What we know:
Elements: E1 4-8, H1 13-29, E2 32-39, H2 41-53, H3 58-84, E3 92-99, H4 102-113, E4 117-121, H5 127-133, H6 136-143, E5 147-151, H7 153-158, H8 160-166
Parallel strand pairs: 1-2, 1-4, 2-3, 4-5
Amino acid sequence: MIRKILAPTDLSGLSREGVRYALNKAKDHGAEVIIYHVVTADEMLKLGKRVRGDGLRRSDSSNLLKTYLETSRLSLARFVRQSFSDLLPLVRVEEKVELGSPDKNIVELAETEGVDLIVMSTHGRTGLSRVFLGSVSERVVRHAPCLVLTIPPNIAEAAPERLEASHGSF
């Protein structure tokens, strides 16, 4: 039985299809969805360089971090509202933003929240970019405490209607 679904997003168009699938699945099962965005270390490094470049004091940087996380929360809320307004009245949704490493945070949240299913889109990196950047979805699949459904970009981009039509068959 599926009671809680975790739908990680990087706020991209590709991740939109994974979240949509999760919301449809939740609607079918009467489940709750946690739509989850992780602010990465790379984003924080860029923020740190901006802080140093602007000559801000260390005490100001903690306020800047809070502001950045709040901006990320607002971005997630806007992404959800604009992309899924048709499904929001039909599903219980929690939006969550945290700082960290996407794969580790996703696995930890799935464990602490008792998630039954993780639904996430993949970027489909291959070759050297996959070797150097790794695959968040691959690491999540390897370490997750529950089922993980990954949606590859060729399906999400080429035939989103296939996802719509097949959401009840899982």
